[in-house]
Design a protein that fits this description.
The chain is mainly α. It has a domain of about 80 residues: Cytochrome c-like domain (Cytochrome Bc1 Complex, Chain D, domain 2, Orthogonal Bundle). About 35% of the residues lie in helices and about 0% in strands. The longest helix is centred in the N-terminal third of the chain and has 18 residues. The protein is elongated and about 90 Å long.
Length: about 160
């Protein structure tokens, strides 16, 4: 038998074996439900958007430190924060001068936004900056905006806009 004929015979045998295999007609057998049995219920946690979580804001260790504010402003520009937030008035990123903070305006919340990043564009800088540098940026960010809008400058504002 020639090699070509032998290959054709093997291929034909493979086609016939594949045609004989009836994988699609398999039916998964499950036991019949017991009379009166209800389907398994999945319990969900009652999360409701907008409900405030009781928390104690953390003070910025560099609050009111003029040298830290200056360093925070330098780092804000150095890491191109103004590329998205401009001079704090917003643009690609949200504004930092008003009282509406998506992830909270308390110092520890701002720190977390800078360190961990946020969905939809805010990169995580915690791997590039030391925590002292992030706190200095937080101190600078808290100086942005009108004093009348943010009287508790050292504490920032909560996500609901209320003083902490």
């Amino acid at each position: 038998m020639s090699a070509r004929l032998w290959c054709a015979a093997v291929a034909a045998a493979g086609v016939m074996a594949a045609a004989a295999c009836d994988r699609d007609s398999r039916v998964e057998r499950r036991p019949a439900p017991v009379a009166g049995a209800r389907p398994q219920v999945v319990t969900q946690i009652p999360l409701v958007p907008g409900e405030p979580v009781a928390r104690t804001p953390v003070r910025n260790p560099f609050d009111g430190n003029a040298g830290a504010l200056e360093e925070g402003a330098r780092l804000y520009d150095w890491f191109n924060c103004s590329g998205c937030h401009f001079a704090g008035g917003g643009g690609i990123g949200p504004p930092l001068m008003d009282e509406d903070w998506i992830y909270g305006g308390d110092p520890d919340q701002i720190f977390d936004s800078i360190a961990s990043g946020r969905a939809n564009g805010m990169p995580a800088y915690g791997v590039r900056l030391a925590s002292d540098e992030i706190w200095k940026i937080v101190a600078y960010v808290q100086t942005l905006g009108d004093d009348a809008e943010r009287p508790a400058r050292g504490l920032g504002r909560s996500p609901t806009g209320n003083e902490p």
